[in-house]
Amino acid sequence: MNETTAIIGGSGLSELKFLKNAQRKLVRTPYGDPSSPFLIGKAGKRQVVFLQRHGLGHSIPPHKVNYRANIWALKSLGVQHIIAVAATGGIAKNLVPQSLVVPHQVIDYTYGREQTFFDGSKNNVHHIDFTMPYSSILRQHLIDAARGLALGVVEEGVYAATQGPRLESAAEIDRLERDGATIVGMTGMPEASLARELDMHYACLSLVVNPAAGRAEGEVSIEDIKTQLQQGMVKVAAVLQASL
After folding, report:
1. Domains located in the chain, CATH noted
2. What is the pTM of this model?
3. How does DSSP assign 16-61, residue by residue?
């Protein structure tokens, strides 16, 4: 990865402490304003662009994120690679809190989001191949970085992208499991497909912060999720730095 790399921070990742000489930059787009100003700095010799997906102070819910503006702005800044950080629920039994997952597939259950740059408004209907939604090269960088740090990493997974902002019911998680999903989150789509439309490499680094609904006794604890986020993002940041 010799080109400019972007990190999209999700819940629990609001800064990159290893970013040096960072400066903020506002970007205007034909699709409105991105979630937040971009932080542009250096990680070693590599230029890195950081974006807070949910805005400053985590103020934008998943279904209101302006995904098109975010991805278009990153492209305009010369970004070729995007690593998207995601807090997720574990559906598969082996995916307990603090598990790191680099998914290889996604299933989109979202609705009402602006899904494409090619919406027909400019008579430019265009179809992309989305057989493999994540960049295999970028995924391998993340896997190798986690291995090099002796951190356990699950090298494949199926990300179920749900609408949010509420968490899912136990029956809904049962359905996702029947569909083949192993983790569940709310921001994986249309972020991945928009990046593909603009010919950008995209991969997801997922931190499991809770057993999905019905996968543990009792209800999902928001306080437990916050604790897992605080602890787990230390590992995520280490993997990001190593991968860069």
Report:
1. 4-243 (3.40.50.1580)
2. 0.93
3. -TT-EEEEEE---BTTB--SS-EEEEEETTEEEEEEETTTTTT-S-
